[in-house]
Amino acid sequence: MTTDSACEKAKAELEEFLHDELCREDAADIRAHMATCADCSGEHAVGRVLTDAVKRACNETAPEDLRSTVLARLRDLQASH
Ligand SMILES: [Zn+2]
After folding, report:
1. Which of 4, 26, 67, 73 suits 57 as a labelling partner, its CA being 20 to 30 A distant?
2. pTM of the predicted structure, to 2 decimals
3. How far is the CA of 14 from the centre of ligand 1 (A)?
4. In terms of CATH architecture, what is 4-79?
């Protein structure tokens, strides 16, 4: 059974998780939660796609407006929960 507070924690730390900025224990907590929570794992899947898009945008000499569009979508995604 997942709890709302577990979802809040997972979503709050999702961005750090996607950027591999969490300590091993916190990352393991989120991974374990996503294994049991379709909502958070779905959000992670979307976040992973966007994060990869940002990484590509940053590695290539992407137009600045594309980069900010992707970043804005990431923020919208997080703000909507
Ligand atoms: Zn959850």
Report:
1. 26
2. 0.62
3. 11
4. Orthogonal Bundle (1.10)
What are 39's two structure tokens?
Answer: 């909502």
Taking only the tens place, the pLDDT of each residue in 20-32 is 999 999 999 999 9
- CA–centroid distance, 17 to ligand 1, in Å, is 14
In 3D, which of 27, 3, 6, 25 has the Cα closest to residue 15? 27
35 Cα to the center of ligand 1, angstroms: 9
Q: How many helices (H) and strands (E) does the chain have?
A: 5, 0
Tell me how far the alpha carbon of residue 45 lies from the centroid of ligand 1, in angstroms.
13
